Sequence to fold (44 residues):
Amino acid sequence: MNPFIQNVLAITALVFALGFIFTKYFVKKKSKKACGGDKDCGCH
Fold:
């Protein structure tokens, strides 16, 4: 395989892996307020 293509594929895989790790651990998820029976949760 051409070394240039191999480097491009390796860098692309690294970028996707780092992006996944960043979004998994550092981006806060939107919390859904699910009522579990509490009347004071503000969803009623």
Remarks:
- The mean pLDDT is 83.
- The chain is about 55% helix and 0% strand.
- Residues 1-28 form one domain.
- The radius of gyration is 21 Å.
